[in-house]
Amino acid sequence: MNAAAVPTFGAKSNDFATYIDAVNYIGGEWTAPVADTFMDVINPRHGKAMARVAMSGAQDVANAVAAAKEAFKTWSQEPIRERAQVFYRLKVLMERDVDELAWLVSHENGKTFGESKAEVLKGIECVEYGCSLPQMAGGSGLEVSRGVTCQQVYEPIGVVAGVAPFNFPSMVPLWMLPQAIVGGNAFILKPSEQVPLSMIRMAELFREAGLPDGVFNIVNGGKDVVEALCDDEGIDALAFVGSTRVAKLVYGRAAASGKRVLCLGGAKNHLIVVPDADPSVTTENVVASFTGCAGQRCMAASVLVAVGDVQHLIDAVAERAASMKIGQDLGPITTQASLDRINSFIDDAEKRGAKVLVDGRGQTADAGGYWIGPTLLDNVSADMPAGHEEIFGPVLSIIRVDTVDEAIALENSNPYGNASSIYTSSGEVARYVTRKLEAGMIGVNIGVPVPREPFGFGGWNHSKFGSGNITGWDGFRFWTRARKITTKWALQKDATWMS
Fold this sequence. Notes:
Helix content: 25-40%
Number of domains: 2
CATH superfamily of the largest domain: Aldehyde Dehydrogenase, Chain A, domain 1
Number of strands: 22
Strand content: 15-25%
CATH class of the largest domain: Alpha Beta
Radius of gyration: 24 Å
CATH architecture of the largest domain: 3-Layer(aba) Sandwich
Distance between the termini: 62 Å
CATH topology of the largest domain: Aldehyde Dehydrogenase, Chain A, domain 1
Strand order of the largest sheet: 14-15-16-13-12-18-19
Largest sheet: 7 strands, mixed
Low-confidence stretches: none
């Protein structure tokens, strides 16, 4: 492709549409992978290829590192206010093209258009936070002794990299890019090979916003690219979002090469429902939590912990879930392999004695896609795979307990610690539960407790490896390093330990 060859995405409906191949973006140029190898990008609603994606390797990563190092020399010297101006312009461009970007997410990932637009809007919110960083990153200074001042400033690290998952092709990269680039770094992104198209379009918007060549680079591919990003000693920091199994591997491998590393993994989020929960709030909220984005998000509800007599609430959740229209209220699963895995969890739970209250197996919408409807499993136990493993689909397992303390113990026994919620009308119960749950993000009467900027996103335990959060102020500190400067100009008549 030539220097500016990513066209707009013209789809304005769910009708099948093709797009250009996702090649690499290195130093401001679109380049094919060294090995000239590609794989199909599948539209999951229709189950057929809408584009191809480059399957790159270590040499492509090395080429991106070289371009990023060159760009870093001048970009890091730009004042932070000038760096932030790119994101002011990017925000305007994303708002101009919000529907186009949403349709692109919908076609490559499978989300409904409404869910896709919400993702893009959240990405714009992350960009907006990047615009605010010059107001927050001024550092600090203090006269610590007579005639002696200490100052702390935040400086870029160098060449940094991010690995993004398939479930949020637009938003998750924008968790990283504003803080890292406004912080003065040059960035190499590896999108998921399943959904690479949103970011190649974003690269064109970055160009239009005036970002210098080489500051933002894309290397598409799979495992080979991730391993090369971990191993390349020219990369100084790396962030990863994906499954816990891979997050552990990436964290260990990247840290071994001396990098600063932050890896977000999987989840098994529990929604605790007690008898005094508001029925209308609880019903809509629980269903939205486990079915939104077809359950393919780390913040989705996985387990409903039913405390005591809450049968009326379970009945209402089941009725609402059963009324949802697949294809309209619920998009497809992103891949056939993921669909097969979700079905296997349901089949296994049923064989072990769980009752299928709402069965989404076998439901279809558009022909050829990967479909499953909302599924509600009752009488699940914590030792069943459906009760303790991440399913990553629109499946909610109901585990019944007698007391709030049993519910807390159940949540805390799970190795993940991403998010959990309590549904209650009692402030006392809410305070008691939120202080005892082993999760980094807690909701009270909200099933997707995602912190919005400036609050940071990040779980605990096996849901995160590394220190701090990936968004908000923690994100800026992750992509920068603090320099402490101690200064003395005038001699003092009396001596101190700093004389």
